[in-house]
């Protein structure tokens, strides 16, 4: 469910629970829509980011020291955004949420988010693909 005053917006996570091993890489996907016009004015997305923490406001993972150098966003045409976290740590176990803001002052976040569980098990000698293939 998307939280904002504009109920016509939509944010979708294809998977809401992911389990991964310490040291591996995971991708978390979402897609979103928003109204093209609000009160007769064109709407555009100004900022997109992922977060787990809130300190007065949502904290962009790219600025969070716990994730520095390990996260990457790939937001592409069609309003699809992927979060990649490398070298997973058990402390990365959390609920990840996507948020975007618009030029009309809208702040949208997806609830309930994606729960990532990182286990201490490290697999060696085996390639495990943790990224589900999703056709958008």
From TrEMBL:
What InterPro entries does the record point to? Ig-like_dom_sf, Ig-like_fold, Ig_CD22, Ig_sub
Q: Which Pfam families match?
A: Ig_CD22 (PF24518)
UniProt domain Immunoglobulin: residue ranges: 15-119
In terms of PANTHER family, this protein maps to: B-CELL RECEPTOR CD22-RELATED (PTHR46013:SF4), VASCULAR CELL ADHESION MOLECULE 1 (PTHR46013)
Query: Protein name, please?
Result: Immunoglobulin domain-containing protein
Q: Which organism is it from?
A: Seriola lalandi dorsalis
